Every structure is written in structure tokens, then in C-alpha cells.
Amino acid sequence: MMNPDKKRLRRTMMFLNAQKPSLIKDPYIYKPDSLMFDLEDAVAENQKDAARFSLYHALRTIDYRGCEKVVRINGLDTDLWKEDIRCAVAAGCDVIRISKTETGADVKAVEARVEAAEKEFGRPEGSVLIMAAIESCKGVLNAQEICGASERLFGIALSGGDYTKDLQTSISGTGVELMGARQILIIAARAAGVQCFDTVYTDLDNEEGFRREVEMIHTMGFDGKSIVNPRQIHIVHEIYTPAQKDIFFAEKVVREIDSKKAQGIGVFTVDGKMIDIAFYDGAKRTIELAKASGVYKGDL
Amino acid sequence: MDIIKPAVAGTMESSDCQVTIEPGNGGIELDIQSPVIHQFGDQIRKTILETLKDLDIENARLTVVDKGALDCTVRARVEAAAYRSVGQKDALPWGGAIR
Questions:
Q1: Is the pLDDT assigned to residue A68 strictly greater than 70?
Q2: Is residue A243 less than 8 Å (CB to CB) from chain B?
Q3: Which chain B residues touch A82 with a CB distance below 8 Å?
Q4: B7-86 CATH choice from 3.40.50.300, 3.30.710.10, 3.40.50.1110, 3.30.230.10
Q5: In what helix (H) or strand (E) does residue B92 lie, and over which residues does it extend?
Q6: Which residues 31-90 of chain A have a CB within 8 Å of chain B?
Q7: Contact status of B73 with chain A (Cβ, < 8 Å)
Q8: Which residue range is the domain that position A104 belongs to?
Q9: I need a labelling partner for A80 at 20 to 30 A (CA). Which of A113, A174, A267, B71 fits?
Q10: Nearest-CA residue of chain B relative to A92?
């Protein structure tokens, strides 16, 4: 059975160094949709062991008030990732994020370890989801294979820093160097029916640039963005809040499809626009976004 | 668990605590420094002793410098120091002795 959280709302995923108690004690106050506890790049090599204990007890003890708990494990080219998975699954994480994913086989290797950990620690089978971070040209070109590699995989994310290094360029601030990867990833994700997340924006003082980038990825179809600072969260949520006219239209679409389906009618019009079942998921998503943004007044 | 060699875990940053563990002299010896020792000293001591009991450590000397850590952080740092002392990084007993 599909994990019902596979399609949950994920507009913002905030990175937190799992080794830093001051960061992981109360990040839910900023209300991101997901919290990403990092065991990888943010943690110094000689603190990898300590970060796991810190993560384990934080996840077991602290009530993160509805925020999804994602754990970014160390790369599959290290001797750390297998124990990272045991620790995170035992602690009760919701998601394992694979770093530097390059092939479908990478996803399958993690899937096997997650399944074993669920059994070892008595968690229901399928309760832990997977997401894949794509950080290389090879990963971008294999995006379709990665997206379809596991029933547990709910989405993929672009990691722009490592990707641009592999591309032998750097982040310019214009987005031109990421254009191809963004387009390929969102198309691959949608073709496989999974979600897609954009990379972090590290120029923290450039609010205008951040806003422009979020507007762009929103238009491109991304489900959300990785966040490195709490002050970026409200901007993403604001941009992902649907307009009232879109909410009214989505409501009409959902109600009409529900009623017409019962009557055996497949195609009809709403406000002069031709509508069929293909509009249903999008309309439901608009209402879900409106609810999450606190602007929905209806009863759907 | 027998503490083999001295080990340290944690930092002096706010909300953290730094734990040093060393082989003991026949029992548990505890030195706690904390800005909130009068309010939370007993609770910190209790958490450390519980953690040592769970890890089956009966002979160790611990120096703990607390910077306002939550109980879960104190527990994590004691465990990290203990497992560093014995050099174990894999196949850890999550949900068992680590609870």
C-alpha cells in the first residue's frame, strides 16, 4: 500500500546540521513543511559519530509539531551511510535523503537497507520514504531511471553547488547554469509521478534575488525549495499561496468532477473552460496549498 | 561497557554540553559544571547516571561542562564519548542500550 505521506505538501525543506543542538532543538517554530537533518556535508568528518547520537535522541525526544523529518545520509561512496540509515530509521525519521544519487541502483541499494532497518527496529514496512538528491551531470541524465527506481521514492532534488562543480562552472545568480538540469529534473519527476525540489539559495542578504528565483521555480512546476535560513521560509510559502480566483476555480472543478463522475460524464465545462479528470489532481493540490497557507475558507 | 581510554564529545556552544570520559577508579565519579547547576544540577546528574546504567558502565570518571543542554543532548554526548572510548562506530545498539 502506498504511504499516504508520499504526496504530502513540501514547499520548504530546511537544512539543519544534526550535530548542532542549538539548531535542532526547536526549528519547528519557523513552520517549514519539512526539516532536513544533515549527517553529510554540514558535519565535520571527525564529528560524524557524535552527530548520529545527537540526531537519534532529538528525533526520539523532541516533538517537531507536524514537520516532516528528513535525514540526509552520507554518500554511498563512504563507509558511513549504512549506519546512518540504521540510526535514522531507529530514531523514527520519515524520510531518508540520498546524497549524490547517480543511478537507479543507488536508490535500490538504499531501499534494501531501509527495508532491513524497518524490520530490525519494528517499524511498519513502507513507513520510511526515500528522496534522491541529484548533484552531478550523470545523475541529471539518469533522472528518469532514478525517479522510477523505488515505490518508496517520493521525489528528487537538485543540489546546485555540487552539480555546477561537476559542470565545471559556478552559481552565477542568474540561474542560467542550472536551467538545463532544472528542466530535465522537473520533466523526469512529473513523468514518473513524483515530486521535484529546487536547490538552496545561499545569498542570504539578497531577498529580491531569492524571491525572483522562487517565482521562477514555482512557474516551472517545482513542488518546493531547499532552505538554509528560516527567514527564507515565509517568502516561499507566500509565493506558493494560490490566488483566491484559482482557489474558487479549483473548488468548482473538484465539485463538478465529483458530481459528473457519478453521472458518467467525462468532459464538461467550468466557467467556459473544458474540464476532464486530468484537472482533478491539480485542483485538489491548489486546495491543499490554500489550506496549508491558511487562506482556504471552503469545506472541501 | 568498559571505558578503555579517555574520550571527549560535544562542544562549548550554547545548548550543548561537553563530556569527557575516562577510566574510573572503581565506581562512577562525576564532575558537573553548569550555569544552571542550582536549578537543573540534579536533573543533569540523573540523566548522566541513567545513561551510564543503560550502557552498563560502572567504572568511569566523567567531567561534564553544560551550556544549557536539553536532556536528550546530555544523553547523546555521554553516549558519543563512551562509544568513542571503546572505538565502536558501527552496529550500534539503537533502541537497546541507546534508548
A1: yes
A2: no
A3: 90
A4: 3.30.230.10
A5: none
A6: 49-50, 52-54, 56-58, 60-62, 82-83, 86-87, 90
A7: yes
A8: 4-239
A9: B71
A10: B95
